[in-house]
């Protein structure tokens, strides 16, 4: 054994290890930076409604002898509180989805039930926005996962489709179950998304149209939740859009066979 060879190999191995360590440190730094950004963005987003609530409370104090004014301010406090509730709920969903542990609830989930619940939760919103909300496509598809997370994700897509659409337009939720993949497509005839925004809208707190999103009560977290929820289920989200014409978000999930009736009965009663 040539000692020079041994030392040469040792230095190669040493260099490789150093590379691995450097890579780990960079990855760690990236994650730390993401966490810091998330905390900074979250605090920034929370400041707006909290500030509004305290200003409105002061306004109520000084308008105490004008009941009409008090009612207006109280209604606005209630709206801001609702916004805070939605924001904290979404932040919690997202941090749960981003935690390293896998899904805890991995039962068979009926896509029919996920879609029915996601639509049901937004019927009133669609009605008041004058948008026709319809469901089409295949029935009877199943996936494995957490029904509540999937309902939240598809619900976010439906909510966005309604928000970014004009009155009198249609939002469709369609299913295609084929070749071991279930595709759930949420389509709208709304404002659409430009090519540069398409790459970024799945990022946390990113809004293509900042003013519109805030006006309509958006948090900038909905699509981030959709992306993480889908990935947690071993799937992916695809987006097609044309500005001025509309958008289609497609969630693709691994399909499973329909479970035996007794399991489905148990799920339905829940
Ligand atoms: P928000 O709460 O602001 O809607 P999301 O994460 O759900 O946050 O969406 C991010 C951004 O992507 C939105 O602010 C909006 O600009 C854009 N967007 C999402 N869905 C649609 C859609 N169906 N049509 C047009 N733009 C959309």
From TrEMBL:
Its main location: membrane. It is found in: Cell membrane. The chain holds residues 125 to 394 of 414 of the full protein. Its EC number is 2.7.13.3. GO terms for biological process: cellular response to phosphate starvation. Coiled coil: none annotated. It catalyses: ATP + protein L-histidine = ADP + protein N-phospho-L-histidine. One of its GO terms (cellular component) is plasma membrane. Keywords: Kinase, Membrane, Phosphoprotein, Transferase, Transmembrane, Transmembrane helix, Two-component regulatory system. Residues 41-257 form the Histidine kinase domain. GO terms for molecular function: phosphoprotein phosphatase activity; phosphorelay sensor kinase activity. It comes from Microbacterium saperdae. It is an enzyme of class 2 (transferase). It comes from the Bacteria. This is Sensor-like histidine kinase SenX3.
